[in-house]
Fold this protein.
Amino acid sequence: MLFLLITWQALAVYLDSSTFPMPVLVAKVFWQACVTGQLPYHLGMTLLRLIVSFSIAMLFGCAMGIALGRNRKLDAFFDNWLVIFLNVPALVTIILCYVWFGLVESAAILAVVVNKLPNVIVTIREGTRALDQDLMDMARCYRLSKRKILLEIIWPQLHPFVMGATRSGLALIWKIILVVELLGRSNGMGYQLHLFFQMFDVASILAYTLAFVGVIQLIELLILKPLDQHALRWRR
Amino acid sequence: MSAIKIDILNKRFPGVGEATGHLVIENLNLTINPQEFVCLVGPSGCGKTTLLNIIAGLDTDFTGEISVGQVTKKSKIGVVFQNPRLLAWRTVRQNIELVQERFQNAELIDELLDVMQLTAFQNVYPERLSLGMSRRVALIRAFAVNPDLLLMDEPFVSLDAPTARQVRDLLLLLWKKRPHTVLFVTHDLREAIALADRLVFLSAAPMRFVSEIVVPIPRIERNNEQAIEEFRQQLMNEYPAIKQLI
């Protein structure tokens, strides 16, 4: 970390360019953006969109993934669709959503969900296919209810896959959500970055990036890691 | 609970692609009386596990009929598989409680844990247990539903001899406390003689009924190795056909 800072500082002094600001300047801009409330507001908007679109994508993705993993006919039917949606460029879905539904919040959310959903479905489907049939037989012998089977037998086995979908999903959504904001919203990180780009304000861009990295670390540290530890407490 | 009648005309596994598949069970007629302890003895791979799956209701793809008396959906079946099949992410006690979904009975679990000497391990995750202990947990789980019918599929295979004997004794102890019908699959004749009221011999695939023999040794003498060995020899001499089965 310290090494990074020193290298950064040295490079900045050497280049002496307005497009490569010194760390001190970035820190100053960061502080100012925080004090004026600009950065928290835009970061908050982006986070809000992230939470909403992520929740929707995970919920439907898990449900559909389990369904496809357990039902071969359904899977055969949707398989081609999945491949198509997996590979449609994010930009296309974003533009289409805005064109068809207007420059509104729901179109923005929908665009993100459509981009994320196929990934979740595919990951959870693979997880469902890998379920232990022995345990399912055991559950059927003892006539466990559907609810118990889902909560006690299927879900714990899917946990690594859900966490995988969560991590790769967050990374993907961050990237897409900024483009969505850049193209059709008047707030959020994407919108701000676009603004800074037009003014060649590199210090602000870096300051926002810094905030970004911080939030991602916090999510990992405070939410994902504890979840992992709790779910895998039975491992030696 | 009334008797279990098994009447399977045939059961075949479908072939892959062009192959015709193969016959696993053919013309099997068996009646198991209430509270009887029956051991099914046959060579490995003869379809005993398939038979148990059919009786447990896991496999319905066969021609024939199974009547498990009046007990249908409400019946309580305990099953002990070849491998313990415990949920690794639940503790020993949670694993047992899981099958008591409709009838919590903590006292029964306490008692069973005590008998199986696992009380100290009830809050441990299964990964920390030895195989013998895991099998004991699987046994407790089967008894925890207070079963009318207990299906056991070579539950003591790959245990060392002393452990297997210990678990066998515990099984008999529990069975005497709460008599119920037991169908016990094994390919170990000594084990079968030590446990069963009646032995049913089955042939190699396709599985057919070969013969049945009531074990005359009184229950108190069942831990007498010599008596069991003598009876085994006697069986071998009287029924040469058995020799090829085990």
User: Anything to note?
Assistant: DSSP finds eight helices and nine strands in chain B. Helices of chain B lie at 48-56, 92-98, 106-115, 131-144, 161-177, 189-195, 225-238, 240-243. The two ends of chain B are 32 Å apart (CA to CA). Chain B touches chain A at residues 53, 56-58, 73, 77-79, 81, 83, 85, 87-91, 98-99, 101, 125-128, 141, 145, 151 (CB under 8 Å).
